[in-house]
Amino acid sequence: MHLFSGKKVMITAGPTYEPIDPVRFIGNHSTGKMGFALAQCFAEEGAEVQLISGPTSLTLNHPLVQVTNVMTADQMFAACQQHAQETDIWVFSAAVADYRPKEVAGTKIKKNEDTFTIELVKNVDIAATLGKQKRPDQFTVGFALETNNEMENARAKLLKKNLNMVVLNSLNDPGAGFKHDTNKITIVKPEAVETYELKSKEQVAQDIIASIKAEMACV
After folding, report:
1. Nearest alpha-carbon partner for 130 in 218, 28, 10
2. What is the Cα–Cα distance from 35 to 38, expressed in whole angstroms?
3. DSSP label at residue 2
4. What is the pLDDT of residue 172?
5. Cα separation of 116 and 139, whole Å?
6. Pairing of strands 48-53, 65-69
7. For the chain, how many structural domains are there in total?
8. pLDDT at 82 > cutoff 60
9. What is the pLDDT of residue 206?
10. Where does residue 174 rank: exposed (0-12), middle (13-18), buried (19+ CB within 10 A)?
């Protein structure tokens, strides 16, 4: 019997790119590997997966995984809204840009001045916004990539975004975070903290979904 047979899962993965002009954007170093590993792992355990991915070179072909490709935070939010109500589990593993340029130039910006200022406006917080609409029967997981005050920030995110658990990464841990095939995580729950050793992202995905299953069994 598969762990998640009959369950529907929504996963966000990768970065978002916020355009400045037709050739430039604001982005980050996320590769999407963690989100894609989670989608593969959930599907292998019988779940139907909606994988909403920002720009990445990764591909995933599995009969139980439907991939929606997006570029910006607004596009990712729209895709999440489309699938949120019909899914049982939400996993927000994407590295969504916090801000976007207020105005996007229609043509390539030329290097005419010694300084150049871009006014930024805040993007929608996808997990927090959807967290306000979450039903009691839905289980939600957030990710926190931190450089300081890791546990304090993870616990704050757990409450602020109405999450059931937060997967904490620290850039202070070698081999964790962006651009690695490995990850070292701490899972933060309202009543528990689970610490794991450095592992491949495929193994980390297995640890995460096992923790989700254990937590859902207690609810």
Report:
1. 10
2. 5
3. -
4. 67
5. 44
6. parallel
7. 1
8. yes
9. 95
10. exposed
Residue 112 lies in a domain: yes
Q: How many Å from the N-terminal Cα to the C-terminal Cα in the chain?
A: 20
Contact (CB, 8 A) for 102 and 119: yes
What are 146-191's pLDDT values in tens digits?
777 888 889 999 999 999 999 998 776 665 556 567 888 999 999 8
User: Does 201 score more than 80 pLDDT?
Assistant: yes
Domain span including residue 118: 8-218
The CATH code of the domain that includes 128 is 3.40.50.10300
Q: Which residue has the tokens 């640890």?
A: 207
pLDDT, mean over the chain:
92
Catalogue the active-site residues: 28
Tokens standing for 108? 């390539």
Residue entry with tokens 């528990």? 192
DSSP-assigned states of every residue in 130-144? HHTT--TT-EEEEEE
